[in-house]
Amino acid sequence: MTPKGFLFSTAEAAIKYPGRKDLALIYSNNEAVIAAAFTTNKVKAAPVKLDIKKAASGKGQAIIVNSGNANACTGKQGLKDASLTADMVASELRINPELVYVCSTGVIGTPMPMERIRTRIPELIDNLGISSMKDVARAIMTTDTFPKIVHKKVKVGSRTGCVAGICKGAGMICPNMATMLCFILTDIAVEHKTLGRILVEAVRQSFNRITVDGDMSTNDTVIVMANGTTGNRPITGKSEAYQQFRKSVHDITYELSKMIVKDGEGASKLIAIEVKGARNEKDAGTAAFAVANSNLVKTAVYGNDPNWGRILAALGYSGATVKEENIDVFFGKLKVVNRGVTTGSDEEAAGIMKEKELKITINLNLGKASFNVLTCDLTEEYVKENATYKT
Amino acid sequence: MTPKGFLFSTAEAAIKYPGRKDLALIYSNNEAVIAAAFTTNKVKAAPVKLDIKKAASGKGQAIIVNSGNANACTGKQGLKDASLTADMVASELRINPELVYVCSTGVIGTPMPMERIRTRIPELIDNLGISSMKDVARAIMTTDTFPKIVHKKVKVGSRTGCVAGICKGAGMICPNMATMLCFILTDIAVEHKTLGRILVEAVRQSFNRITVDGDMSTNDTVIVMANGTTGNRPITGKSEAYQQFRKSVHDITYELSKMIVKDGEGASKLIAIEVKGARNEKDAGTAAFAVANSNLVKTAVYGNDPNWGRILAALGYSGATVKEENIDVFFGKLKVVNRGVTTGSDEEAAGIMKEKELKITINLNLGKASFNVLTCDLTEEYVKENATYKT
Known about the structure:
homodimer, alpha+beta, L-amino peptidase D-ALA esterase/amidase, 2 domains, eight-stranded mixed β-sheet, seven-stranded mixed β-sheet, 12 helices, 15 strands, globular
């Protein structure tokens, strides 16, 4: 199921190496309402700088995206290259260049192979409609092991629309966002401000609550395009369909972010961390991320080792207010730490850890705030992948 | 060369497993002046809580230290056990229990095997003088691969004294300090406040500027004992020998901290990171630690991959003020990034990375502040060691 009024194509541009589709185009038949969220890293890739400016208009019609090269740390030439890419696509499509967004992911610091991209653009446009949204999801993969796509139906009055999202993730995943590109497309008409508000909230509840390795990328981008092909009256905060539409975007970003963590570089397990009983949400988040980013916790989970002491150590240095003698820790439903000391159930805990998904619940017993973070374990495979990613 | 007036012994208490010396005693023939620094982790091990109280007196005569069990997250029983250990040693030595410090390192959350420790204490005291300071350094190793010891001669007037330090490190090494125990002994008399000030400064310049995995331990302790056997007039800030003594403590802590990083769990390379040209020292430190703790930077160094883009990404998310277009990066003396863009010398850089020590210099070109951090690479071996440390 794909939102109506969008066309897709992919091409081989041999950006990093030949033999794979590494260039994709997303095109809406008409000018769409767009909202976007970008990395908060101070070092931003050229296409991110470009798109931030374009997104201010709230309008868009096409997204050209490549894997293999991030076009980050490429100076003025990088900015020229990103602009030129948008211009070339716009010229072929005969639309305003301001409506064309550019997204890149891959190696940092290497100039874009512009000639190879240029020669593929006519083909991309000629082939629009031949590829599926899933083909685009596949073309934007870097170290991902599977394409990530989620879609939802939404009833708007008598009509039925569709919201679909794709993303790529894998490494360098940390709030806010990740080496993460996400495109959400819908044929439902949505008023611009409403769309922006929904996106910001959804990102905060999903992509900003996952971490693979604590590294935040220069290229993170989430773009949502609503082209209104369904023909409904644009959704606002007062529309009957508002809640259902909002929920579909939240569900899509949450499910995609979960997929990203499951597919974390070298990951063998998904770890869901919930900190509750914190004095306030900031503390809960700080504590949850300290545990989620601890290499010692992540390797212990990998090794099925109920080494909860590392969790307490991470809570202790997190900066959040904690009292050792108040802390409870659960693995699944099993209490392993009661008020700061062992419950003597490590053997049973080791059994629970053998599952592919581990829920760690931490109750600080100091207040009522809570925070959830998804992460994955740290394995030899992560080291192997990242020791030789570039070369 | 060992400071005069100190005796050492070691014993096998099978704390984690049998067949190794895991208990050690350091004893000064007379009451010594002591100063100490402890972990800033809010979750502190029982012996740390105990020693913090004792150190307020500025006096000490013995340190009993064990590996294999950290006596952390062990609740009230843990505190009782730590106190009892000090009491038992004091009773056998016939000294005031307030003069006996207890240090532990090893697994968190497991009760101390007190019976096995108790039965070894008479032997420890009987054997005082049989072991060397290096034997103690060996007994406190956990995942360390070599004992760490440094000594310096210091001239005080017509006399010559000695300062010697031992430590254990390996994993969970991050400021402030680490799973790190360090004992510095000297036969030179030093006034208490002067000793305290020198220690704080030395720790700030050494142990607080190293990181292995970003995890900070619950047990970090540095104790310096000055027993005055040399017979000099106690050194104060005004003494002629002050600078030389101060330098010897700084050199010892710096050399020991470098050994800790070299011996980081699974480490194959030492990485020295210098950030200069920062607006202020806080920014320089924040930036340096973000690079030093980045798993992506550490794996790239392991793989001899000059992926400097990961360095720029880490600087960008560090929170420090940076301007991409101002940043220079050097590997050794080779400039790899000039004003935010590549110098095209990646191939040469890859060659430099094959050395066992890599110096990464980052000039933010925004001000005059600088900061140095030592770290190591991240390898499959780190993951292996930490996935199965407890079980």
